[in-house]
Amino acid sequence: MTGPAATRTPRRPFLLLSIRDDRAASADEYRAVRRFGGLDADELHRVVMTRTPLGDIDLDDWSGVILGGGPYNVSDAPESKSSTQRRVEGELRGLLECIVDRDFPFLGCCYGVGTLGTVIGATVDRSFPEPVGPVTVELTDDGRADPLFAGVPTVFDALGGHREAASTLPAGAVRLAQSADCPVQAFRVGTNVYATQFHPELDAEGMATRVEAYKHAGYFPPETADAIKAAAQARHIEHSSLIVRNFVVRCSR
Question: Can you name one GO molecular function term for this protein (predicted)?
Fold first, then answer.
């Protein structure tokens, strides 16, 4: 990775992997990563894995890989997983094994905890779920020292919502953040491989889009949708997006 450079333009694009089949949510995720990362359209390429097989990925073609969140959980019962989910998880596992082996720049948002955690031997289960909406995140000592969180206060508000989480991390993985109800809100493997349980690419407007997209997906009672949107609007979600920008700036090559 290179040092900070606020006006740096990546010579190689970033790759955004999406598992959101809902077109509005997927498009909003792409726009958010571009906006918070300071990326032009030709600097961020998106593959919607639920629609298109990943194919062969040459990591040397990219500055870094970003994985968005979505409705999948690696801890779903095997018999409940669709053929698409099984394909996506298999493709991601192979790619993440290469990413970890090379210590290649990676930022996994929410679903990244489960997928990356599985590859490195973390315990990923349903012990620490959090409801959809705002969450107060606290950096660990390692998180405060990590360049991914440059400019982020020790305690900050973010947006999230998840059914599964990492209960324990293996030796070698570094816990970077926590919340009251979830002990692993972010972790690092090696120098360049990251996952966050909260959504650094999500603001209140994006939350409203996703609440509508997944209103009937079982994440929350549909009648609470407006309350969730209002709760997101009431919090100052202004620091978590720095994580996306820090990742892009440091990894551009």
Answer: transferase activity
